[in-house]
Design a protein that fits this description.
Strand content of chain A: 15-25%
Order of helices and strands of chain A: HEEHEEH
Structural class of chain A: alpha+beta
CATH class of chain A: Alpha Beta
Radius of gyration of chain A: 13 Å
Oligomer: homodimer
Amino acid sequence: MIHKLTSEERTTQLAQLHGWQAVTGRDAIFRHLKFADFNEAFGFMTRIAIKAQEMNHHPEWFNVYHTVEITLTTHDANGVTERDIALARFIDEVAKAMQRG
Amino acid sequence: MIHKLTSEERTTQLAQLHGWQAVTGRDAIFRHLKFADFNEAFGFMTRIAIKAQEMNHHPEWFNVYHTVEITLTTHDANGVTERDIALARFIDEVAKAMQRG
């Protein structure tokens, strides 16, 4: 079974991600993203959805027009695990690539 | 400019939709949907996204695994309009078709 990161491990991992923060009152991490428009935001979500399905690890996310808010946690471990860090890393890569243009 | 529905108009329209309710403290409508799994939920969202873009009228929505929560309102009119009812009607049709199988 996948183990929950310790507070120290989580802090170390968060420092290597882009724009992620710990959620207050919950063992989860959060990132707010802003795109050019809805087309770009939903295109981003589609790339993440395909990856999430491949990983069998899914985000909690909210979208309105060009913004996407993502919360990651591992329900089975009741906290943040390596799976969340791996998905967050992929999200950062896609966001960076899309926002580069 | 598109006009905001009166309270009476909104009530009449809501009664013809499926599972939608008025949001407390905000002129908006809300529906919670549950699908078989993430694949089905995100497939549903993709159909709605394409329609929303075509209508140039976008939802506020939240997804986690097999659930989707949708809030509709028209920011330009500061309340619920015919555009929201039209999008809600489309959402109902797609949801019904997908949940029929």
